[in-house]
């Protein structure tokens, strides 16, 4: 693993961050907010790590997926209350506050998507 700066992944990260911000600001419920946003967030995190790290895609994918799964699982607890962040909009956006098993599917599909794209781009 090497520290690096990848302009392409930074561009993708930036675009996805802007999309996620727009979703958070303007879409309050429904498929786009609750499912597609979760799908995109793991892709965004993957792109962030690929911006600064040069390593095998599977390693980054595993770390991002485990992080997303852990945060989702912690939503079963009263973590925000324990951290005294229950009134923080930012904390609720980052950590979430409602557990949904379907989010695991969205996270998994997002990681599968980036791995397929990375694999196909290595073949060209």
UniProtKB/TrEMBL annotation:
<keyword id="KW-0812">Transmembrane</keyword>
<feature type="transmembrane region" description="Helical">
    <location>
        <begin position="32"/>
        <end position="49"/>
    </location>
</feature>
<feature type="transmembrane region" description="Helical">
    <location>
        <begin position="58"/>
        <end position="79"/>
    </location>
</feature>
<dbReference type="InterPro" id="IPR021257">
    <property type="entry name" value="DUF2809"/>
</dbReference>
<feature type="transmembrane region" description="Helical">
    <location>
        <begin position="99"/>
        <end position="119"/>
    </location>
</feature>
<feature type="transmembrane region" description="Helical">
    <location>
        <begin position="9"/>
        <end position="26"/>
    </location>
</feature>
<protein>
    <submittedName>
        <fullName>Uncharacterized protein DUF2809</fullName>
    </submittedName>
</protein>
<keyword id="KW-1133">Transmembrane helix</keyword>
<keyword id="KW-0472">Membrane</keyword>
<dbReference type="Pfam" id="PF10990">
    <property type="entry name" value="DUF2809"/>
</dbReference>
